[in-house]
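2024-03-11 09:14:02 DEBUG pipeline.ingest accepted 1 chain
2024-03-11 09:14:02 DEBUG pipeline.ingest length=383
2024-03-11 09:14:03 DEBUG pipeline.predict start
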Amino acid sequence: MPIKTKSSFRRHAPALRSERTASTVPTPTHVALIGAGSGGSALLSVLAPDPLVRFVGVAEINPKAPGLRIAKRYGVRVTRDFRELLSSEEVDLIIDVTGNWEVEEALADFNRAGVAVIGGASAKFMWQLIEARVQANAETKRHLKKYQDLYRLYVKEAGSAVTGERSRIACEIHDGLVQTLVGINFKLDLCRELIFSDPTRCHDLLSDARTQLKAAVEESRQVIFNLRPLYFESMELLPALRTYLQSYETQSHIRTELIASGEEVALSPKAKVVLFRIVQESLSNVQKHAHADRVLVTLAVSGGRIKAMIEDNGVGFEVDAVSQDPTKWQSFGLKGIVERARLVGGTARVESRKGAGTRVLVDIPILQKEAQRRGANKGPDRR
């Protein structure tokens, strides 16, 4: 059959019919699909499982078309002659994704009350939109699987800090990544509702969803990195912090500086994890709330204790007012910082006032048997 291109057409308003019975159950739209190539495959993969869509049949002359496997999976009738589908009395909507001029001419002459016809550029836009949604979902699943694999690795290494870290990770994902993915899903669902009635609006929503998806991918990568450093740096705190601060500076455009003194060997693995997470949480707060352009992180091991300070030059806030509001105290991440320090017998406090920046001060004791392993103090290590 010769293939020619021809301008798109639309015989009737392309809208799915949604009637309601007395029991408020929507009546499925009966769809006839002409073509089971890449376009038909995309439409079948999304619409066939939908209870509001029922395929009357699929017409395809190529026995190796990818959409035929999907049609078989869902028990959709297949025919080589598209005219068989046109003669069906059940059809509410006909979709042509073949680009074949003979099919277009036959549908241009087809005229039956209550039956909508979509073909040409309109049908191409529709299946490409749906295909983009399928690809976006696959990309999201791939990155989430990578995150889950690394999360399991982290849980194995974190030991006694697992419970506290699970809560932190859950909050981080729920407040950031999950909310972004929910927004993407909402836009894609809205695209599906508008795909026939308002293709232009649908295209705009798809562009927004793709932008959000890119942001979600970057956020998932950051979550993965946040889990990774202490494991891949053999549990060494300073190399992990330097790597993290470099990444943070690139992402946030906030200049960072790290000053460290004393022997890191005196610290237990648990204390290293806690300190690393406190620095992470503090810098996350700086990026979200402080409007700062500089952050200084200092670590000092001496006298059987390790003291840390994370200081920014941001707008600051009234600590007393925030501490009396449990919602703000938690949303600012301050509760997590204090609780982490307590996990290893230490303390943490926040000093700030409006217009004067913020300082997070951490003081953690070193166990006696660990202190005995310390060597001579090193000079300041300035990055």
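2024-03-11 09:14:41 DEBUG pipeline.report The domain at 236-382 is CATH 3.30.565.10 (Heat Shock Protein 90).
2024-03-11 09:14:41 DEBUG pipeline.predict end
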